[in-house]
Amino acid sequence: MPRVDINVVRKDELEHKRWSGGVTTQLAIWPEDADYAARKFDWRISSAVVEDEESTFTPLPGIHRHLMLLEGGIELAHEGVGSRLMIPLADVAEFEGGWETRSSGRCVDFNLMTAKDYEGKMESAAANKKIKLPMPPASRCWYGFYSIADGVAADIEKDGRFARVTLDRGDFLLISYLPAPGDELSVTLGSQAEIPAVSAAVWRKS
């Protein structure tokens, strides 16, 4: 079975910073000595509150982006590429950080940013269903769950054994593991909410 490291960051431990259109909350970043302000990072998971009705995204050349809405609604427009309306907890937008991107509307969003040597995915996480974590041909994987409900019981299963952590709204669970063919690692989110969390997975390209 893969080696697994489990880390829970509580809501009151997270750092919030203002940006041009609102407030951003960093949930996780890699490597450990990464510096987002200096644009020196391999990947970053965050959430942001977009307060301005019209907002321009920070240029991030060389970074691939995933974005999902948690609340609200926006139209996302990429200069010379196109635009789309975003539906909370349903749509995932993928785009290049170097594109000139604007949004219209207010929202709370969930973000994954990856540098060129990394790839990932993002999705909403349904309650009471076993979520199998990916085992790509990579040296290391990270899978994060951002809780949007209170009292979520996250059962992490490996080798027939369980580890349980309880998450409240705004808490972040990050699972780091070394994938291997044939191994299985899964998470089940026990909750009365239909969608108690959103998730982002990232790994280094083989």
TrEMBL record:
<dbReference type="InterPro" id="IPR011051">
    <property type="entry name" value="RmlC_Cupin_sf"/>
</dbReference>
<dbReference type="InterPro" id="IPR014710">
    <property type="entry name" value="RmlC-like_jellyroll"/>
</dbReference>
<protein>
    <recommendedName>
        <fullName>Protein Ves</fullName>
    </recommendedName>
</protein>
<dbReference type="Pfam" id="PF05962">
    <property type="entry name" value="HutD"/>
</dbReference>
<dbReference type="InterPro" id="IPR010282">
    <property type="entry name" value="Uncharacterised_HutD/Ves"/>
</dbReference>
